[in-house]
Amino acid sequence: MTRQNRRNFLWSTAALSTVALTTSAREFESQLPSAFSSLKPLGDRVRPITPDEFHSRLVHAQQLMTDLDPKFDGIFVGPGTSLYYFTGVRWGPSERLLALVLPRNGPPLLVSPAFEEGRVRELLRYPIEVRVWQEDQSPTAFIAGFLAERGVHRVGIEEALPFTFFDHFRAAAPGIECVSADPVTIGCRARKSAHELELLRLACESTCNVYRLVFENLQEGMTAEDINRMVMGGYAKMGLHGYALVLLGPAAALPHGTREPQVLKEGDVVLIDDGCQVEGYFSDVTRTAVFGKPTEKIQRAYDAVRQAQDTALDRARAGKFSGTVDDAARGVITSAGFGPDYKFFTHRLGHGIGLDGHEHPYLVRGSKTVLEAGMTFSNEPGIYVPGEFGIRLEDLMAIRPDGPAELLTPGFEVSFEKPFG
Q1: CATH C-level class of 3-31+192-407
Q2: Are the C-beta atoms of 416 and 304 separated by less than 8 Å?
Q3: In angstroms, rounded to a whole number, what is the distance separating the alpha carbons of residues 355 and 283?
Q4: Per-residue model confidence as pLDDT tens digits over 54-103
Q5: How many whole angstroms separate alpha carbon 266 and alpha carbon 9?
Q6: CB contact at 8 A, 338 and 305
Q7: Are strands 269-273 and 287-290 parallel, antiparallel or unpaired?
Q8: Residue 282 CA from chain centroid, whole number
Q9: Which CATH superfamily is domain 51-189 in?
Q10: CATH 3.90.230.10 occupies which residues in the chain?
């Protein structure tokens, strides 16, 4: 699924419960076991992205446009995480366009609905020129005119820009070549700075702290909704916004959930997936444990998944193709008798992660993306046996300049029966 649609889907399933959609996390917090009192807000451990960092991202994008062959003359970015990445402005999509136009040479421009100008200026984290359009004007024609003034001939269109705006822009600027902005936007966002890695680590640590208490307080007869409330309440205790997908027993064989009711009983697999955000940066962690004692088959599957994680961490090295990491992990699972191909390990090994829960690049068979230091990925092999059980273990990792990748989570799962030891 696409990065945002996946989360929308998870929220719509019974695994998250309709109660979770209508009741605040603060209400869940009030129902928590006493052990959750140890969870505290992160406070001054969170260092926001600075204005200088936002500015440096714009400069980096302009340098990439210059280095490309053929060069880009500019990029056109609509609402979404790339807009935030470059400007600090969080803005949802609507029929009224707010857009960043970044030429290869010269200062950037924000194009805003006129009546939103004050709010836009309030949100800006770095000084950028703002030009406004009125309700009876075309923002795309306005942008086309600005680019014509700058002598722009080749423009990269950011992937999240709605087609209607692209189509109108293309009609308003027939002399401009429109291409994908991916070489610039992915080129900037795929490699995380030290500060971004710090925020990702904090998000992962927070998720693991919540999960630890949840697994320690499981009781027979709990529903998936009960467990989800504990997760959401734990995040609320920390002042964080988070998500949870909870799957029990045979439901865990469906990687993204089911509408069927689930009640915890002895011998069930308990799978908890997803995470939280710190300064907009996502964690994505899955822990799977057995409530009681596993069967031989389930234990064998668990051991294979853990070994696949170790293998993937070792193979995820700078200079290697991203697809080879998936190959290595999938080989471990196939060798354990849970193959071939996608038969039981039904999805790719991992996705990029940062300001989006799923973002470029991806650890998927056949991918020729060359791994570079600072790239961040989920490492999430799984085995899913329909009607029986599912096992997924997910940690985040970052590519190092040398050697195997490093974990951004505090550590891999300790054991099947006690995931946090």
Answers
A1: alpha beta
A2: no
A3: 10
A4: 999 999 999 999 999 999 999 999 999 999 999 999 999 999 999 999 99
A5: 29
A6: no
A7: antiparallel
A8: 5
A9: Creatinase/prolidase N-terminal domain (3.40.350.10)
A10: 3-31+192-407
Return phi, psi of residue 112, to 5°: -130, 150
Residue with tokens 């009030």: 30
pTM (predicted TM-score): 0.93
Please report, for residues 158, 192, 411, the alpha-carbon distance to residue 221 in angstroms, rounded to integers and kept in the order given. Answer: 48, 43, 30
Provide the mean pLDDT of the chain: 93
Burial (CB count within 10 angstroms: exposed 0-12, middle 13-18, buried 19+), residue 386: exposed
Residues 90-120 as b/e (b if ≥16 CB within 10 A, e otherwise) read ebeeeeebbbbbbbbeeebbbbbbeebeeeb
Provide long-range contacts, Cβ within 8 A and 24+ apart, for 33-39: 33/213, 33/217, 33/230, 35/213, 35/216, 35/217, 36/213, 36/230, 36/233, 36/234, 36/237, 37/237, 38/213, 39/209, 39/210, 39/213, 39/234, 39/237, 39/238
| 366 CB neighbour count, 10 Å cutoff | 10
